[in-house]
Amino acid sequence: MRVVIRLWLATLLAAGAAAQGPAVSENVYFGDLHLHTRYSNDAATFGTTRTPDDAYRYAKGEAVPHLGGIEIQLRTPLDFLAVTDHAENLGRRQAGPNPPPDLGRAVWAEIVEAAVRHYAPGEFTTFAAYEWTVGTREGNLHRNVIFADTDDLPFPFSRLDSDNPEDLWDFLDTQRAAGVEALAIPHNSNVSNGKMFALVDFAGAPMTADYAAQRLRNEPVVEITQAKGTSETHPVLSPNDEFADFELFPELLTANRPIGGDGPRAEVVRVDGLVPGSYAREALVNGVRMQAERGFNPFQFGFVGATDFHSGTSAVEENNMTSMSGDAVDATLEERLVTNTWSRLPFVARSAAGLTAAWANANTREELYTAFRRRETYATTGTRITVRFFGGWNYGDDVLDGDDWVARGYAGGVPMGGVLRGGEGETPTFVIRAAKDPVAANLDRIQVIKGWSAEGETFERIYDVALSDGRQVGPTGKAPPVGNTVDVMRATYTNDIGAASLEAVWRDPDFDPDVHAVYYVRVIEIPTPRWSTYDTAAAGLPPRGDVMPTLQERAYTSPIWYMPNN
Amino acid sequence: MNASPWRRLWREPLTRFFAAGAGLFVLYALVGGRAPTDDRHIVIDRYELETLAALWQAQWRRPPTRDELSRLVVDRVREEVLYREALALDLDENDVLVRRRLAEKLEMALNDVAATAEPSGDDLRRYFESHADRYVEPPGLTLTHRFFSRDRRGGSVEADAQAALEALVAGGTVDDDSFHAAKTLELQDADRLERIFGTGFRDAVVEHAARPGSRHAWFGPVPSAYGAHLVRLDAYREGRRRTLDEVRETVLDDWRRDHVAARESERYAEMRARYEVDVAPFASIGDLVQP
Q: What was the ipTM of the complex prediction?
């Protein structure tokens, strides 16, 4: 079995290496890898009637009917979509009482069939997928399983089979050995109560090199932004990061009912989960530390973003947020603003996020899937920022000036998701270029986030490497804010501040060739109205006081890792 | 005759239980399901064992062991027992969710019947022709562009681009700016231009393409979200309506969707016609609705 896995990976790697020169990815594609339809039991409860067929039609840009009596439509269609219904009792609530004994298989067949029917190579890509939904009282360990193809698929391995992610990986390894390739994408680590990126295995034992290898083989990317908040980092973990308080969602998924009694909800004490072990940046840095100290890294993952909407519609546009939970819960603007019946957090705490961006040469299942595998991906909070990120040893300061800068980027190093092995003691150069979403807001800045460990401690540092409007980093190490043009009563903004594109050729001033390090890029937009502010403006109300009226949308690239030669 | 004994009887939970049971029986008969007759007998027959084993096999790529299969049977029996006890306790009665799901289930059953319908050749052609604007191949193109960055050039970006256009037309070269996307694009769908350059860029290019002599000649400046561009169309394919043969599968899919919706409305109208419905007068609803 191991041999076959190695063969498969070898084939994958050889495909990249066999081409003459480095593999260049020409285009970026945007899509959603996490969306529920009526076949998820919670979505059915929320009144969602949309099928996988509806979900794909909406993603492709077609108008679909809405319970509110209107038609809803994306302004910019997606390039790809994975419908990821909860595998547990698939379709059960939708089917009603007395379901046929083969209901789950019939629904799974319909999900796969919808993915087959809507796949249009070159134009729109679908993935057969499902969610493995493990949420114990201790914390959520949810994963989405994305299949590379639609042929000969097994029935989903669900929580009913096991609540141990290592069993899920065994299942995926078994499938891979039989020729069915898939990967798992962890998400909502932010509400995992410290479980998702714990430093021990599921049983609480120390991790091993085999554990790390199996984890990376099956989980190359992690979802860090979606409706139920941000999993990048948290102010407690990153006190010097002034952008760390973005769309936090502290409520544990498993604790959203009154605890210890049936008193009125208003009196329920909010139970926040543990922060350490729940955020991706901390895990990346812990991974680098394990690499340095123990020779393996279980957290060498890239980033993706998604909606996790339960409405069958990936309504990621902040100014076109029509339904994220289900038509019975959020059909109208009024319901979206006041509904608070099934969660301790107000409904408006949910985000209109996010998207996965993948660098590839064509919009096909094979091209996109292999981009996920090699982590040449980034997450956005729903906006379509374009960002390139290369690391190498010999880039000149003028690398971005010519029309061949992309080819030079690939030829001179590794793209996002890559590993940069030690040079001859010189400092690596990072080449970064970001461009705004052409129908959205300007850019505020590009940041490089670096993590490393020394003498048993972990560290992070944030560098502002490109700033709009001629701003400079001051003596405190901080740049002045970009400003704010948002009129919160009318939900408008202007692009009079910020830049259409930003770029940097950057060398780490604190580089130590003997120290393992991880670098990723965060691109930040100027402030724009949050979806809830578009809603209150449309209703003629002042912005909600319990959420930020404006936000700074952003993109997070998969990291580049530096590994010393020894 | 005094109706109160009947009323008292109706207030008895047991009566309501029987009435509800009878109602359920009638509903099952109508929907074509089976009434739960032998509800103390659970049969795990050879077919059920095969189903359990097949489910396992699909997941694990091997048949279950004897022990694994017996565990699957234990789980299956437990589920069935709990399900039947729940039914016996009427947990499905007076339950708004159950009522809604049963209604939806019948709706789905009607849909399934409609979904298997096949249009005649004429039906399909008529449908295709009345929805022809859905089946359009967008224009495709190959273009080369020169970029003048607003970030870099500020207010002079238009003038710089205009001067460069004159130089290009005169056969010279220009010193433009590096761009975040490619300078030569081959697009099967001109709408993609909006996703790369922003609103208005596609229309400018498609309008230009309609002019005589527009191929291989520089034109512009065309504004984008990033600055100004000079564009040269190297190839252009007009958009067109596809033929039925090219899109038959999609048209069939769409016909079925519309057909299902139409049949559902018809069937509902038929069923609705069998009922007499009384709704309290709307004269006195002032306290229930917004003015």
A: 0.86
